[in-house]
Amino acid sequence: MFMASGIALCLSAAQAQDFKQKGGDNNLQLLFAPFGSNPISLNEGITYRRFLKDGSMAVRLSLSVNSSKHTDVLQQADDTLSFPKQINYYSPFPGPDINLVTGMNPEANLVTKESGFSIRPGFEKHLAGTERLSPYFGAEIVFSSSKTKMTRDTIVVSDFTTTLTDTISNDVTISAPWTTRSLGTTYGSKTFGVNLIAGMDYYFTKNLSLGAEFGFGFYSTKYTDYDTDFLKATDTAPIVGPDPNGVYSATVTHSTTVESNPSQKRGKDSGFGPNVTARIKLGWLF
Protein backbone atom coordinates (compact mmCIF):
# COMPACT_ATOMS: atom_id res chain seq x y z
CA MET A 1 0.00 0.00 0.00
CA PHE A 2 2.84 2.40 0.89
CA MET A 3 4.61 1.59 -2.41
CA ALA A 4 1.44 2.22 -4.40
CA SER A 5 0.86 5.45 -2.49
CA GLY A 6 4.39 6.64 -3.24
CA ILE A 7 4.02 5.94 -6.97
CA ALA A 8 0.67 7.70 -7.03
CA LEU A 9 2.17 10.68 -5.20
CA CYS A 10 4.98 10.99 -7.73
CA LEU A 11 2.61 10.81 -10.68
CA SER A 12 0.20 13.29 -9.19
CA ALA A 13 2.96 15.84 -8.55
CA ALA A 14 3.25 16.43 -12.28
CA GLN A 15 -0.46 17.01 -12.74
CA ALA A 16 -2.62 19.98 -11.76
CA GLN A 17 -5.74 18.66 -10.09
CA ASP A 18 -7.95 19.14 -7.05
CA PHE A 19 -7.11 16.76 -4.25
CA LYS A 20 -9.48 17.84 -1.49
CA GLN A 21 -13.17 17.25 -0.96
CA LYS A 22 -15.95 19.19 -2.68
CA GLY A 23 -19.62 19.66 -1.92
CA GLY A 24 -21.60 16.49 -2.59
CA ASP A 25 -18.62 14.16 -2.12
CA ASN A 26 -18.88 11.05 0.06
CA ASN A 27 -16.11 9.68 2.23
CA LEU A 28 -15.43 6.37 4.01
CA GLN A 29 -12.75 6.14 6.69
CA LEU A 30 -11.34 3.22 8.64
CA LEU A 31 -8.62 3.00 11.26
CA PHE A 32 -5.19 2.01 10.03
CA ALA A 33 -2.37 0.75 12.29
CA PRO A 34 0.68 0.28 9.99
CA PHE A 35 2.86 -1.28 12.71
CA GLY A 36 0.20 -3.34 14.50
CA SER A 37 -0.70 -7.02 14.23
CA ASN A 38 -3.95 -6.02 12.47
CA PRO A 39 -3.00 -3.13 10.17
CA ILE A 40 -6.60 -2.50 9.15
CA SER A 41 -9.08 -3.10 11.99
CA LEU A 42 -12.78 -3.06 11.17
CA ASN A 43 -13.63 -3.75 14.82
CA GLU A 44 -12.63 -0.18 15.63
CA GLY A 45 -15.38 1.12 13.37
CA ILE A 46 -16.00 2.83 10.06
CA THR A 47 -16.86 6.50 9.56
CA TYR A 48 -19.05 7.78 6.71
CA ARG A 49 -18.98 11.50 5.84
CA ARG A 50 -21.08 13.55 3.45
CA PHE A 51 -19.61 16.91 2.45
CA LEU A 52 -21.98 19.86 2.04
CA LYS A 53 -21.81 23.25 0.34
CA ASP A 54 -18.32 23.72 -1.09
CA GLY A 55 -16.83 20.94 1.00
CA SER A 56 -16.27 23.09 4.08
CA MET A 57 -19.01 21.32 6.07
CA ALA A 58 -19.61 17.60 6.61
CA VAL A 59 -22.05 15.41 8.48
CA ARG A 60 -20.65 12.13 9.71
CA LEU A 61 -21.72 8.81 11.19
CA SER A 62 -19.28 6.41 12.86
CA LEU A 63 -20.38 2.83 13.44
CA SER A 64 -18.69 -0.07 15.21
CA VAL A 65 -20.13 -3.57 15.69
CA ASN A 66 -18.30 -6.51 17.26
CA SER A 67 -19.10 -10.04 18.35
CA SER A 68 -16.92 -12.86 19.69
CA LYS A 69 -17.25 -16.34 21.19
CA HIS A 70 -14.61 -18.20 23.21
CA THR A 71 -14.83 -21.77 24.57
CA ASP A 72 -12.68 -23.20 27.37
CA VAL A 73 -12.81 -26.93 28.21
CA LEU A 74 -13.20 -27.22 31.99
CA GLN A 75 -13.62 -31.00 32.23
CA GLN A 76 -12.46 -33.59 29.75
CA ALA A 77 -14.85 -36.41 28.79
CA ASP A 78 -13.30 -39.14 30.94
CA ASP A 79 -13.78 -41.12 34.15
CA THR A 80 -12.25 -39.54 37.25
CA LEU A 81 -12.41 -39.96 41.00
CA SER A 82 -14.58 -36.85 41.18
CA PHE A 83 -17.20 -38.39 38.90
CA PRO A 84 -17.16 -42.20 39.40
CA LYS A 85 -18.94 -44.74 37.21
CA GLN A 86 -21.34 -45.67 39.99
CA ILE A 87 -22.70 -43.83 43.03
CA ASN A 88 -25.04 -44.73 45.88
CA TYR A 89 -28.39 -42.99 46.28
CA TYR A 90 -30.53 -43.16 49.40
CA SER A 91 -33.50 -45.50 49.79
CA PRO A 92 -36.62 -44.54 51.77
CA PHE A 93 -36.63 -48.02 53.30
CA PRO A 94 -33.99 -49.52 55.58
CA GLY A 95 -31.81 -52.16 54.03
CA PRO A 96 -31.22 -52.19 50.24
CA ASP A 97 -29.92 -49.02 48.54
CA ILE A 98 -30.20 -47.57 45.06
CA ASN A 99 -27.09 -47.84 42.88
CA LEU A 100 -26.88 -45.26 40.10
CA VAL A 101 -24.79 -46.30 37.09
CA THR A 102 -23.39 -42.97 35.85
CA GLY A 103 -20.83 -44.04 33.24
CA MET A 104 -18.48 -41.73 31.37
CA ASN A 105 -18.14 -38.08 32.32
CA PRO A 106 -19.38 -35.63 29.66
CA GLU A 107 -17.23 -32.74 28.53
CA ALA A 108 -17.87 -29.53 30.47
CA ASN A 109 -17.20 -26.14 28.87
CA LEU A 110 -17.11 -22.48 29.75
CA VAL A 111 -18.44 -20.41 26.83
CA THR A 112 -17.99 -16.64 26.80
CA LYS A 113 -19.94 -14.56 24.28
CA GLU A 114 -19.28 -10.84 23.91
CA SER A 115 -21.07 -8.38 21.67
CA GLY A 116 -21.37 -4.64 21.38
CA PHE A 117 -21.97 -1.69 19.12
CA SER A 118 -21.22 2.01 19.02
CA ILE A 119 -22.91 4.69 16.93
CA ARG A 120 -21.59 8.27 16.81
CA PRO A 121 -23.37 10.89 14.67
CA GLY A 122 -21.68 14.27 14.31
CA PHE A 123 -20.60 17.16 12.09
CA GLU A 124 -17.35 18.78 10.96
CA LYS A 125 -16.32 22.30 9.94
CA HIS A 126 -13.33 22.22 7.57
CA LEU A 127 -10.86 25.11 7.38
CA ALA A 128 -8.99 26.34 4.33
CA GLY A 129 -5.76 24.49 5.05
CA THR A 130 -3.54 23.89 2.04
CA GLU A 131 -3.85 22.24 -1.36
CA ARG A 132 -3.71 18.77 0.23
CA LEU A 133 -4.34 19.38 3.95
CA SER A 134 -7.86 19.83 5.31
CA PRO A 135 -7.96 20.62 9.05
CA TYR A 136 -11.34 20.55 10.79
CA PHE A 137 -13.17 20.76 14.09
CA GLY A 138 -16.62 19.62 15.12
CA ALA A 139 -18.64 17.54 17.57
CA GLU A 140 -20.22 14.10 17.88
CA ILE A 141 -22.69 12.28 20.12
CA VAL A 142 -21.79 8.80 21.35
CA PHE A 143 -24.19 5.91 21.99
CA SER A 144 -22.70 2.51 22.80
CA SER A 145 -23.78 -0.76 24.35
CA SER A 146 -22.00 -3.98 25.32
CA LYS A 147 -23.14 -7.39 26.58
CA THR A 148 -21.28 -10.38 27.96
CA LYS A 149 -22.76 -13.82 28.61
CA MET A 150 -20.76 -16.58 30.31
CA THR A 151 -22.23 -20.10 30.25
CA ARG A 152 -20.61 -22.71 32.50
CA ASP A 153 -21.41 -26.43 32.26
CA THR A 154 -21.93 -28.25 35.57
CA ILE A 155 -21.87 -32.06 35.69
CA VAL A 156 -24.87 -33.61 37.48
CA VAL A 157 -26.72 -36.92 37.59
CA SER A 158 -29.46 -37.13 34.98
CA ASP A 159 -33.08 -37.13 36.14
CA PHE A 160 -34.58 -40.49 37.08
CA THR A 161 -37.69 -42.07 38.65
CA THR A 162 -38.09 -45.56 40.12
CA THR A 163 -40.55 -47.35 42.39
CA LEU A 164 -39.40 -49.34 45.42
CA THR A 165 -41.14 -51.53 47.98
CA ASP A 166 -40.18 -52.45 51.50
CA THR A 167 -39.94 -56.08 50.47
CA ILE A 168 -36.95 -55.63 48.17
CA SER A 169 -33.96 -57.47 49.59
CA ASN A 170 -31.26 -56.57 47.05
CA ASP A 171 -29.86 -53.21 45.91
CA VAL A 172 -31.68 -51.63 42.98
CA THR A 173 -29.54 -50.59 39.99
CA ILE A 174 -30.68 -47.64 37.85
CA SER A 175 -29.08 -46.06 34.79
CA ALA A 176 -28.53 -42.34 35.50
CA PRO A 177 -25.60 -41.20 33.32
CA TRP A 178 -23.74 -38.00 34.08
CA THR A 179 -25.10 -35.02 32.15
CA THR A 180 -24.49 -31.28 32.10
CA ARG A 181 -26.60 -28.29 33.07
CA SER A 182 -25.55 -24.89 31.76
CA LEU A 183 -25.47 -21.99 34.21
CA GLY A 184 -25.38 -18.51 32.69
CA THR A 185 -24.19 -15.11 33.90
CA THR A 186 -25.13 -12.04 31.87
CA TYR A 187 -24.03 -8.43 32.29
CA GLY A 188 -23.28 -5.39 30.14
CA SER A 189 -23.18 -1.60 29.92
CA LYS A 190 -24.72 1.38 28.11
CA THR A 191 -22.84 4.60 27.45
CA PHE A 192 -23.83 8.11 26.36
CA GLY A 193 -21.30 10.80 25.58
CA VAL A 194 -20.53 14.03 23.74
CA ASN A 195 -17.15 14.77 22.13
CA LEU A 196 -15.66 17.99 20.80
CA ILE A 197 -13.28 16.93 18.05
CA ALA A 198 -10.46 18.34 15.95
CA GLY A 199 -8.43 16.65 13.27
CA MET A 200 -6.93 16.78 9.81
CA ASP A 201 -7.00 14.90 6.51
CA TYR A 202 -3.97 14.85 4.22
CA TYR A 203 -4.72 13.84 0.61
CA PHE A 204 -1.54 12.11 -0.55
CA THR A 205 -3.21 11.47 -3.92
CA LYS A 206 -6.56 12.19 -5.47
CA ASN A 207 -9.46 10.67 -3.45
CA LEU A 208 -7.18 9.01 -0.87
CA SER A 209 -6.22 10.55 2.46
CA LEU A 210 -4.56 9.83 5.76
CA GLY A 211 -5.66 11.61 8.91
CA ALA A 212 -5.69 11.77 12.67
CA GLU A 213 -8.20 13.03 15.20
CA PHE A 214 -8.32 14.01 18.86
CA GLY A 215 -10.93 15.54 21.10
CA PHE A 216 -12.33 16.40 24.49
CA GLY A 217 -15.48 14.73 25.69
CA PHE A 218 -17.95 13.77 28.39
CA TYR A 219 -19.30 10.26 28.96
CA SER A 220 -21.76 8.53 31.29
CA THR A 221 -21.88 4.73 31.60
CA LYS A 222 -24.62 2.67 33.27
CA TYR A 223 -23.68 -0.93 34.01
CA THR A 224 -26.56 -3.36 33.56
CA ASP A 225 -27.44 -5.79 36.35
CA TYR A 226 -25.89 -9.22 36.82
CA ASP A 227 -28.32 -11.99 35.88
CA THR A 228 -27.10 -15.37 37.16
CA ASP A 229 -28.41 -18.95 37.27
CA PHE A 230 -28.16 -21.69 39.89
CA LEU A 231 -29.04 -25.37 40.13
CA LYS A 232 -32.06 -26.54 42.10
CA ALA A 233 -32.15 -30.28 42.91
CA THR A 234 -35.50 -31.84 43.86
CA ASP A 235 -35.75 -35.25 45.55
CA THR A 236 -39.05 -36.90 46.48
CA ALA A 237 -39.87 -40.34 47.90
CA PRO A 238 -43.43 -40.38 49.31
CA ILE A 239 -44.25 -43.69 50.99
CA VAL A 240 -47.67 -45.18 50.19
CA GLY A 241 -49.34 -48.08 51.92
CA PRO A 242 -49.70 -50.59 53.16
CA ASP A 243 -51.57 -52.39 50.38
CA PRO A 244 -53.81 -55.44 51.08
CA ASN A 245 -50.67 -57.55 51.39
CA GLY A 246 -49.14 -55.18 53.93
CA VAL A 247 -46.49 -53.87 51.48
CA TYR A 248 -45.35 -50.27 51.51
CA SER A 249 -44.16 -48.62 48.27
CA ALA A 250 -42.35 -45.40 47.37
CA THR A 251 -41.77 -43.59 44.07
CA VAL A 252 -38.27 -42.13 44.21
CA THR A 253 -37.72 -39.11 41.90
CA HIS A 254 -34.64 -36.95 41.37
CA SER A 255 -34.59 -33.91 39.10
CA THR A 256 -32.31 -30.92 38.58
CA THR A 257 -33.48 -27.62 37.09
CA VAL A 258 -31.78 -24.33 36.26
CA GLU A 259 -33.26 -21.38 38.16
CA SER A 260 -32.52 -17.65 38.00
CA ASN A 261 -31.23 -15.61 40.92
CA PRO A 262 -32.61 -12.14 41.59
CA SER A 263 -30.69 -9.56 39.57
CA GLN A 264 -27.69 -8.02 41.29
CA LYS A 265 -27.45 -4.25 40.91
CA ARG A 266 -24.35 -2.68 39.42
CA GLY A 267 -23.12 0.87 39.44
CA LYS A 268 -22.38 3.62 36.97
CA ASP A 269 -19.64 6.12 36.26
CA SER A 270 -19.09 9.31 34.34
CA GLY A 271 -16.26 11.66 33.48
CA PHE A 272 -14.76 14.03 30.96
CA GLY A 273 -11.37 14.65 29.49
CA PRO A 274 -9.26 14.42 26.34
CA ASN A 275 -9.57 11.44 24.02
CA VAL A 276 -7.35 10.51 21.11
CA THR A 277 -7.75 8.31 18.04
CA ALA A 278 -4.59 6.26 18.47
CA ARG A 279 -4.52 5.10 14.87
CA ILE A 280 -4.25 6.74 11.49
CA LYS A 281 -7.47 7.16 9.52
CA LEU A 282 -7.41 5.92 5.95
CA GLY A 283 -10.05 7.72 3.85
CA TRP A 284 -11.56 7.14 0.43
CA LEU A 285 -13.35 9.98 -1.31
CA PHE A 286 -16.00 9.14 -3.92
Features:
8-stranded antiparallel beta barrel, 286 residues, mainly beta
The radius of gyration is 33 Å
Which strand-content bin applies to the residues? over 45%
Mean pLDDT: 86
Helix-strand topology string: HEEEEEEEEEEEEEEE
Number of domains: 1
Question: Total number of helical segments?
Answer: 1
Provide the helix percentage: under 10%
Q: How does the overall form come out from the CA principal axes?
A: rod-shaped
DSSP strand tally: 15
Q: What structural class do you assign from the helix and strand content? A: mainly beta
Distance between the termini: 19 Å
Would you identify the regions where 5 or more consecutive residues have pLDDT less than 50? 7-16
Q: Please outline the major beta sheet.
A: 8 strands, antiparallel, barrel
Strand order of the largest sheet: 1-2-3-6-7-10-11-15
Describe, in plain words, how this protein is organized in 3D.
- The chain is mainly beta.
- It has one domain (2-285).
- Helices cover 4% and strands 63% of the residues.
- The chain contains one helix and 15 strands, in the order H-E-E-E-E-E-E-E-E-E-E-E-E-E-E-E.
- The strands form two sheets. An eight-stranded antiparallel β-barrel has the order 1-2-3-6-7-10-11-15. Strands 4-5-9 form a three-stranded mixed sheet, with no helix packed on it.
